[in-house]
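yo

u said u wanted the structure for the complex thing, so here. seqs first:
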Amino acid sequence: MCTLEKRGNLFFLTLTGDDEHRLSPTLIDSLITALSQVKSQAVRGSVLITTAHGRFFSNGFDLGWAQAAGSSSAARDRLHYMVDSFKPFVAALLSLPMPTIAAVPGHAAAAGFVLALGHDYFLMRRDRGVLYMSEVDIGLTFPDYFTALMRSKIGSVSARRDILLAGTKIKGDEAVRMGIVDSAYDSAESVVEAAVRLGERLAEKKWNGEVYAEIRKSLYPEPCGVLGLVPKTVIASSKL
Amino acid sequence: MCTLEKRGNLFFLTLTGDDEHRLSPTLIDSLITALSQVKSQAVRGSVLITTAHGRFFSNGFDLGWAQAAGSSSAARDRLHYMVECFKPFVAALLSLPMPTIAAVPGHAAAAGFVLALGHDYFLMRRDRGVLYMSEVDLGLTFPDYFTALMRSKIGSVSARRDILLAGTKIKGDEAVRMGIVDSAYDSAESVVEAAVRLGERLAEKKWNGEVYAEIRKSLYPEPCGVLGLVPKTVIASSKL
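structre next:
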């Protein structure tokens, strides 16, 4: 499902297994627990890198589990349940007291794309994997926190229209051009290596984690509002 | 004034006549009726293309009709009347349950520019026609829904300043560079042909119109708020 490791300053949250890493209630719960552990062990210089094994970063919520409910209304209840369960995870990610990097070596769709976007830095593979908001094609509207996050993280008006309203599938280099992804790499290994290099550079800054998190919230007030995250003033300066 | 035709999947709303296509109460009313008809005939795969004959897409509200009122306060009343009549048209356009394309073969100024911007895709001629928000030059402030729409559709801060605060006249290629227009073409015919090609491509997706409209609203929450359009959750997936 997912593992959490610590190597020096860097926490590695990895979606394991060679499947689609569907965000089921179980996986969402494991991810929330993992972030909780990361937060409790945070020190100045900590950095989180989230990555995945296999061909998929994550293909979104576990719609198969929803459909297995038996009836269409029970299926919708299960979908809503996953939407509501994932919301505190995104809130925790946006509040994490350290820099966060998504090292995306495969496809990221729907809630999986949102998972990646919830990180401060987004690195991706260029030769494989697409980013895709599948909802318009499947026939689903977006949860409020999805659109709020996407509006905050994707600056280009036409890119937002292409992604949300046209369901465009975007490969690495295009994602960089559109301003969604910071940089793209030639293999799964090199995405992770680049994330580690970036992580070490950020770690050297030894930022105060509480200040870092509050500044992040002030950067993204719209999703924070929807997620119930209130920014606060922090003066952690040794000079004041 | 305006005509509505259907050819296959595509609805064509055309501003007819070789004049400035000024948005008078009569024309606004015809446009609202036309959108109503389009909405009632909408099916999966429907697409709206709005275009015009002659040298103008639209030069905005019928200020001549306002001035003919006789007194300066009666003229202002007529202007306010047109501002209020046009608002539900823009609301209907932003709620239309299908992709919308503005194929602009001539000048689009003030409310005419807003008319074009209210579409999901904006195609324009490069060799003739300018986009122009004339209000600062005429001495008029903007209706609230104008600025909300322009802020949502024009992403660049300096472009917004140039357009609204400096009354800059923008030709096709510049409009593409500024991110306002999707693409520019060498003649009136080729703008429309490109709109048809785009329309057919979008039609093939056979999107659920209700979902499409709700996703569009979630893309543009600020104008939707001003226009009284409340987004709602829709689950139209056959899988749920």
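Residues 100 and 120 of chain A are 5 Å apart (CA to CA). The interface with chain B takes residues 63, 66-67, 72, 75-76, 79, 135-142, 144, 147, 151, 155-158, 160-161, 164-167 of chain A (CB under 8 Å).
cya
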